[in-house]
Amino acid sequence: MTWIRAESVVYWLAFVAAFLCAAIWESVHPKRQLTGALERRWGKHAILFLTCSAASMAVYRISPVVTALAAAGSPIGLLNKPWLPLAGRCVLAVLVLDFVKYGTHWAYHAVPYLWRIHQVHHSDPDFDVSTAVRVHPVETLLTQGAYLGVVAVLAPPVLAVVVAEAVSCIESFLSHTNASLPGWVEWPLRMVLVTPDMHRIHHSEEVAEQGKNLGDIFPWWDYLFGTYLAEPAAGPEAMVTGLKGYQTSRSLNIGFMLAQPFCEAPPEPPMVSSAAGDAR
Length: 280
Known about the structure:
Number of helices: 13
Number of domains: 1
Number of strands: 0
Shape: globular
Helix content: 55-70%
Strand content: under 5%
Structural class: mainly alpha
Order of helices and strands: HHHHHHHHHHHHH
């Protein structure tokens, strides 16, 4: 029970602190002027977040830490072997769990059905800290299910799972912040962490750019697998965010966000579209 309480405290402290820091940062030094009212954006996205949280708790009733605790003595666990020092297992676990999130994100941009669900996140006509929680409940369930499955198989140290969850939460809010870092900080930092300017490219309306910069915490997977893009084609200032055809106030309606994967026929997934373009 100690680890479960610790996870809850750490996660929610990280959640609140990261959200407040990002919100203050983008309020003081906004990168762009939002096209919609801030109160409406935050209110609608908060309702969607609560819906996702309720769905996750109703379906799984367990957290990654509970799963890690249950799998600690698993004979098939790859990250619970005593021959590897605890520190090494923790570092390896954080890296592997982050790679899993990169791979899951890649799948959402490569598989047509998954893209239908993930497009809800990209159909936000603006880009700010609240975009981080603009996720369809089905995507939450699929992502959480895959993550819990990996934790169960790998049996990583509980400490590593707590750290990975907290850092991922912090990075999610910060990478979606409507703000920019000075160039002398931005370019060195994006060698080790996903920055707002780096992730904003991923939310470009240009399909080819939506398949870039998929990393969650670390950008190394993008560098390694060729999905890194330093600058958008239109330039950082002129780049337009969102999905073409959805950059209207309608995209902030709760009914629209919940129904979009089932009622709207999206274009080909970014990865498929990019591959077709390269082939031509």
